[in-house]
Amino acid sequence: MGPLRILISNDDGVFADGLRVLAAEAASRGHQVTVVCPDQERSATGHGLTLQTPLRAERADELFAAGVRAWACSGTPSDCVKLALSSLLEEPPELVLSGINHGPNLGTDVFYSGTVSAAMEGTLDGLPALAVSSACFQWRQFEPAARLALDVAEQVLAAGWPEGLLLNLNVPALPDGSIAPLRWCRPGVRRYVDQFDRRSDPRGRTYYWLAGEVVNDLESAGAGPQDWPTDVAQVHAGGAALTPLQPELFWRGGLEALGGLLRVDLQRGR
Question: Is the dihedral of CA 113, 118, 123, 128 positive or negative?
């Protein structure tokens, strides 16, 4: 495969190690790499956009490998990709990458993930896009995940990337050579307990700190082939998980499952 124009973003910010390793890996393969990412951490911002304040973007080439062009943007991950596609890039990219996230983006967590949302912005613009996450917040050996992400992206592009497909890659926190084979996966379910910690400030006023502890549900999943493992179970077993996603959120349960809802008089009360 010849050199690609690749746009890379993330939600951990311009100083994140995972971002720099991913950009360096792409550049080392001869690809034309541009980074447009938040100027500070914007984790768990979902698909939020900045509407009430202006966006600012400053060059940050010196933070990255030779040949990588980079901007640090004051907005969310989705802001960054939209700004790149509409204003900063001279030519549209042929691939959008997001990550490498410092921590997993498994199952239902993708709804909150700025990493996945940045990639999804590329999908919404009709571009091949892949989000990649390292499944441990403390792990800093990002090179295996970067190599796997580029291998997957290059192979899928060569095979013909389906329109509207977003790929979500989660790589376990294991050294190179210890990661079990990559598998296609269904999105699992991530459940949390004790999500808010109630505290008091020095003036006695109550505030709440979002914390929570994840309870891994290895089996629960909705859509997807039943012989595929869930992404949660795959990573828990030490393997890399590749999950196909799409922006379409229309109900897939079948109209018969809606039952009597279809007979509700939607005109009543108007």
Answer: negative
Strand pairing category for 95-102 and 129-134:
parallel
Residues 144, 246: Cα–Cα separation, whole Å: 26
User: What is the dihedral angle through the alpha carbons of 30, 137, 152, 122, rounded to the nearest 10 degrees?
Assistant: -80
Bond into 6 cis (ω within 30): no
Q: Calculate the CA 49 to chain-centre distance.
A: 16
Strands, E assignment, the chain:
5-9, 32-38, 57-59, 69-73, 95-102, 129-134, 166-171, 180-184, 189-193, 196-200, 206-210, 213-217, 239-245
> Token digits for 210?
């979002």
pLDDT (average), residues 86-112: 95
Whole-angstrom distance, CA of residue 85 vs CA of residue 185: 30
> Does 222 have pLDDT greater than 70?
no
- Mention every residue, 6+ apart, whose C-beta is less than 8 A from residue 91: 5
pLDDT tens-digit map of 228-267: 999 999 999 999 999 999 998 888 777 888 887 877 777 6
Cα–Cα dist 60/247, whole Å: 31
Q: Which residue has the tokens 């910010």?
A: 13
Fill in the DSSP letter of residue 165: -
DSSP 87-120: II-SS--SEEEEEEEES---GGGGGT-HHHHHHH
